[in-house]
């Protein structure tokens, strides 16, 4: 009888060692529990409280795996949200800090999605990380406040634009 229990545990251990990098999953745990029930000594069966404790552990394991899957999904959704929000600032003027620590401004002309976290392209030639952005300002707000740089040539034009 002892040999059959040892062989059952040996079989269960073989399947456990095949699992990914020594991590036990719910299938491994369930196989071990079934093997334990199948090969238990009928004269000294598993106590109810032991069985209930193992089932509680199994339930906890399953809930932790579900929680981990939900966190992974939430991280993916967060990255998608960041990506969509990054696209929404194309054409807007931003204030950002460059590599030397100076405050600069420019118009967002594109977004680069080649990295894990998107980066933005300013004035068609400078790529900056999202962490460097200090402020996003609508061009209309800049123009009405007089903060926008005036690149237009107004030579020979009076106040009425003529």
UniProtKB/TrEMBL annotation:
The name of this protein is: Basal-body rod modification protein FlgD
InterPro entries this protein is in?
FlgD (IPR005648)
Q: Which UniProt keywords apply?
A: Bacterial flagellum biogenesis
What is a biological process (GO) this protein takes part in?
A: bacterial-type flagellum organization
UniProt family annotation: Belongs to the FlgD family.
The species this protein was found in: Koleobacter methoxysyntrophicus
């Amino acid at each position: 009888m002892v040999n059959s229990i040892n062989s059952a545990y040996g079989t269960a251990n073989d399947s456990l060692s095949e699992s990914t990098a020594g991590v036990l999953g719910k299938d491994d745990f369930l196989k071990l529990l079934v093997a334990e029930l199948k090969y238990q000594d009928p004269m000294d069966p598993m106590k109810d409280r032991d069985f209930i404790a193992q089932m509680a552990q199994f339930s906890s394991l399953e809930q932790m795996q579900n929680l981990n899957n939900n966190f992974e999904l939430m991280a993916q959704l967060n990255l998608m949200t960041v990506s969509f929000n990054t696209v929404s600032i194309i054409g807007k003027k931003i204030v950002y800090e460059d590599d030397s620590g100076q405050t600069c401004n420019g118009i967002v002309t594109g977004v680069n999605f080649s990295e894990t976290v998107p980066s933005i392209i300013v004035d068609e030639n400078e790529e900056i990380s999202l962490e460097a952005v200090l402020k996003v300002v609508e061009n209309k707000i800049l123009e009405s406040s007089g903060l926008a740089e005036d690149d237009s040539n107004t030579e020979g034009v009076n106040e009425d634009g003529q």
